[in-house]
Protein: Citrate transporter-like domain-containing protein
Amino acid sequence: ADGFVNLHSLILILGMMFIVQVSAEVGLFQFLGILAIKLSKGKPIALMSILCTISVLFSAVINNILTVMILIPLTITISRILKIDPTPYILTEAILVNIGGTFFSISSIPNILIVTAAEITFVEYFLNVGLFSIAMAGITLLFFIFMYRKDFSAPRRRLVDTLDEFNVWNFVQSKRLLYASMASIGILMIGFVLIGPVIDPSKVPPDIFAFTVAMILTIFSAIMGIKPKEIIKNFDLELILYLLGIFVLAGALERGRQEKSSRGRYHNGFF
Structure:
């Protein structure tokens, strides 16, 4: 912690926010979602498996709320095209989004705060929590497929053909920015895996690494025509201010407790 404010946590959170917002602005998540859904060919179990896998993977990288905002409208649109009941898909996605938020140390704000304070590496967290979360996600998916097996109905071939006609590139602002966003997330994940086992965290702190990748992506997106204010306006500034307040309050209480303890030891003759 730096004074009362844990700057390492805040810098890491800001870096992740920049990367996620640029990727969302470009249309990366919509692109991947539509592309994956087209692979299902309208088969109910395949569609359920793909939608839920997307839910878990998206929530493991971006926050749960943004994942729901992307996937629920997408699920409803696909359900209307195929004329199927979206309820089983939406309920299962809602459950799995929460499980996906525990996959990685960067998957949620609480995860980031905990691993930063405890100095837990990305790999350590994944081996102790992530693998268990993956197993739970698989079990949960199988449970819901079994529970809703009688509610699944195969759509008509004509409706499946309508889904196939979707052009995934219509959701993308720029192919270059799309590839840059994908590369940034890939580099980020590889870096987090290497920091600790291979790279000394004191020389390359995870928060500085993430923020550097985020700034490079943001500058490139600005060059390609996306205004920084369009990215920043979607930031959860209330969350940042809330965390600042919590850090200051917790730091003040801790400092006060230490001073009180020191005075107690002094009066008891320890000094």
Summary: The chain is about 75% helix and 0% strand. Residues 237-267 form the longest helix (31 residues).
